[in-house]
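Entry 12.
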Amino acid sequence: MGGQLTHFYYNNEMRRTAAVFAVLVMALALALASREPQADSRLKHASRHAEQNGWIWVHLEGRPSDIGYQHGYLLASEIRDTLETVTLEMTHDEKKDWQFFREKAQSMLWPHVEAEYRAELQGIADGAVAHGVKLDLWDVVALNAWLEMGYFDKWDARQHDLPSPSATPEHCSAFVATGSYTKDGRVVIAHNNWTSYETGERWNIIFDIAPAQGNHFLMDGMAGLIHSGDDFGVNSAGMMITETTISRFNGFDPGGVPEFVRARKAIQYSASIDDFARIMKEGNNGGYANNWLVADRKTNEIASLELGLKNVTLDRTRDGYFVGSNFPVNEKLVREETDFDPKNASDSANARHARWLQLVEQNKGKIDARAAERFLADHFDTFENKVDPDERTLCGHIDKSPRGALPWAGPYAPVGAVQSKVSDAAMAEAMTLRAALGHSCGSGFKAAGQLSKHTEFAWERPALRDMPSRPWTTFSAQ
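Predicted 3D structure (tokens):
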């Protein structure tokens, strides 16, 4: 009996001790939890997926400020890196410090940014800061405008009879086809981005955005930008959108709506070609002047919107194609708003335009997404009449060219086709696109080797990375 009582008291004491210990552990856990940052409710519907072949896929959803905060928080480290890279490139090319662009963002651009996108831009800054990045709203606005600030700079120099600090770069090759030109009679659209390799390696975000108002859309882009930048995307209303810049364009209106705002608004709110053209034309400031290639998968109609500042042309068809290679189409636009020579067959824009015409006509009735992928990897130089990857081929390789031959990129400059995208009507209906980072031809780029051979590009060393060719990867909206 004594042994049983001892055992009884011992067990009770152990249970009491265990209970007290459990209470203490719970109290300590609660105390520690109260010191940890709580999950922000704005992040509830957002997500970032593991990297796929160099691409970072993010889903953003909700009100403008929520989308912005999600963007800034989930891509904080990439925003920091992209901001540093763009700052390096812009200050070198434009011969102005970053503070100049911050001030223009505040005084010239911000008054023409509507409330919805003001909230999103502020949200990006807030989210990035919350995740440890040192920046502010004007850094974010200037970053969004980096592609059009060169147009302002060129215009401003002309107003004061000063030499332009840089030429406005040509970007990209693209086509859109439909009707008898495609395999199934429906739309096929494709685009590759031409830019510097240091910024191109950072053009690696797939944005899946479901805003509280407007259309759900899927687009490629750079961390920190509310627009695609190189402009390739599809939306839930059936629109498929891309563009290429207009070579040697001169116009700019400092009182207009920034191009980055109009481009973002167009993919979010357009449900027809007419919608798209109207949004892009309203408040047009001439910045980042483009020939927009657009399709409506619901009707299989395609269009080319050549958007100069003074001259705007909208052509459309349900049986045909449009191509873009920085080749200005409207002769009046060429005369009045560019320094372009359409008769120079050795010019990159003219040579690529000629190659597009060859490829599309040779493949009439056979064009599908896989054919489009092959087109974007093409190395035929129409001026030399041979295969030679250089500044005149659709898959551009300025880094291999002793000519350079672009007014903003000299011989052997680390510049060219940095990534590619393709979609067709069936893919767009499923909110899907295919993308390949790096040269889609399979050729990689090694930064160290290029810099050792061409020391004139040593200023790029802090930002220039290797650019391997990655496989085509399929992305769909959530």
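Annotation: The first strand starts at residue 47 and ends at 48. Residues 113 and 363 are 43 Å apart (CA to CA).
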